[in-house]
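Structure (tokenized):
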């Protein structure tokens, strides 16, 4: 079932400002350990409309840290799977703290899980570029003290842009940092675009944006960076689903960014096919301070890559590694190694590829444990015969469960998951995964091709998506 097309909330005239204002609580549950952009953007829009905004980051704060009895609207940011699951735990506490409030959920994963969220008592579900929709909700409540229940969920409301308002968020120093050897740098987080032009079948961006993306004006991106540098950021992480969806736009941004802040470094997420196609731009990234690029490689099995519609092959991945090394930029590949099509031999191929390419230190162990998540609306459901391999939709999982036809593959995933949760160096975890994977496949354990590599620059909290849960957010509630 796809996600319905956009609609405006009934009875709302978005250009008419209400005479009354309300108090809105914006709640972050988990955003990969970063200062939540999912609160900063809506805060700017709601404050411009005259509403009072409180920001509560439950990854670092507790519900009781704010006086919430007079809050009229509670809006939960749901940008990813982990945040959706944490909403189940926190909603009773929020309702007790704000008994008169209306509740809504917004963000990438909200429309994908609209039925589940409404079952928890969420009255409105918003997705995509939903800042204007949040203002409309607040305006409606200010006028009528009621909230219409939009059905289907509102999504992809294309509109103008405002500089995110981070003034009442917790300091950047409370969040994930950049590690370069023994050095630690405070990290800021910026979006230079919205959506994605690609249709990878497993990606949660696709059901919401359906291949569309829009850029954020350069001056607004720079204003957001400027505010975070003034707040102490010495590294910026571009959070776009793909920084090279608009390569010329990306180049304009990094050139202007570097000209103003030549000592501040950055990272970005870029598809393998874009790294290859736009390889002439890689020296520009290097010159302007790019330390590493995250790329969702997902697999080194060409058959699996074709099923996921990733747009690259194993050979393309290996070519991208060579291009990035030549440019002097680290590549941080991410994977979904456990799928219904994974074989023990295929998993070994992944490990051998990482070893041969000298990427062991570039891959957090969690990336070797990730198991494919199939949410409602996933394009994977359109693959011929694929639904027959799945169990019925499970609201507790927020997806369609599946078991591998070879039980040893599921058993191996569970072993790797336990190893990935241990707090030991990456090379040591990889060595143990190397051992158990060869034993599971029933083949001799060969020597490794590479000695342990030096650690490259990395964020202190690993990036991942499109996966069943392997680690939890750090919410305190």
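Design, position by position:
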């Amino acid at each position: 079932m796809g996600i319905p097309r956009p609609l405006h909330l009934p009875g709302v005239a978005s250009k008419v400002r209400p005479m009354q204002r309300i108090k809105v609580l914006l709640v972050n549950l988990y955003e990969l350990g970063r200062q939540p952009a999912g609160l900063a953007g809506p805060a700017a829009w709601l404050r411009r409309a005259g509403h009072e905004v409180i920001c509560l980051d439950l990854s670092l704060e507790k519900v009781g840290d704010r006086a919430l009895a007079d809050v009229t609207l509670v809006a939960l940011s749901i940008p990813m799977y982990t945040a959706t699951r944490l909403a189940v735990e926190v909603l009773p506490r929020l309702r007790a703290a704000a008994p008169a409030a209306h509740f809504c959920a917004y963000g990438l994963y909200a429309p994908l899980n609209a039925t589940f969220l409404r079952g928890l008592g969420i009255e409105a579900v918003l997705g995509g570029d939903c800042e204007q929709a949040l203002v409309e909700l607040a305006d409606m409540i200010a006028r009528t003290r009621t909230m219409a229940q939009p059905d289907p969920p509102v999504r992809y409301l294309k509109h103008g842009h405002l500089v995110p308002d981070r003034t009442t968020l917790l300091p950047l120093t409370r969040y994930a940092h950049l590690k370069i050897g023994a050095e630690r740098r405070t990290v800021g987080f910026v979006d230079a675009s919205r959506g994605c032009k690609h249709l990878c079948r497993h990606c949660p961006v696709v059901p919401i944006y359906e291949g569309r993306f829009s850029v954020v004006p350069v001056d607004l991106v720079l204003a957001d960076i400027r505010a975070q540098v003034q707040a102490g950021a010495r590294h910026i992480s571009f959070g776009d689903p793909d920084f090279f969806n608009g390569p010329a736009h990306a180049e304009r941004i990094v050139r202007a960014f570097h000209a103003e802040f030549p000592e501040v470094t950055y990272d970005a997420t870029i598809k393998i096919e874009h790294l290859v196609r736009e390889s002439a731009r890689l020296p520009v990234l290097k010159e302007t301070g790019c330390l590493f690029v995250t790329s969702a490689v997902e697999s080194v099995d060409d058959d699996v890559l074709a099923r996921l519609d990733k747009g690259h092959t194993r050979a393309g991945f290996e070519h991208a590694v060579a291009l990035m090394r030549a440019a002097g930029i680290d590549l941080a590949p991410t994977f979904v190694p456990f799928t219904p099509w994974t074989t023990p031999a295929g998993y070994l191929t992944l490990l051998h590829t990482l070893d041969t390419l000298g990427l062991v230190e570039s891959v957090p162990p969690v990336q070797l444990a990730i198991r494919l998540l199939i949410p409602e609306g996933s394009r994977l459901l359109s693959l011929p015969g694929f639904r027959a391999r799945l169990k019925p939709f499970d609201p507790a999982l927020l997806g369609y469960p599946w078991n591998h036809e070879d039980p040893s593959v599921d058993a191996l995933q569970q072993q790797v998951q336990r190893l990935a949760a241990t707090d030991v160096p990456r090379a040591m975890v990889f060595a143990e995964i190397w051992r158990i994977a060869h034993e599971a496949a029933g083949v001799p354990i060969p020597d490794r091709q590479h000695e342990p590599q030096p650690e490259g620059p990395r964020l202190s909290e690993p990036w991942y998506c499109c996966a069943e849960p392997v680690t939890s957010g750090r919410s305190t509630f």
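Reviewer-requested clarification: The chain has 15 helices and 15 strands. The longest strand covers residues 290-298.
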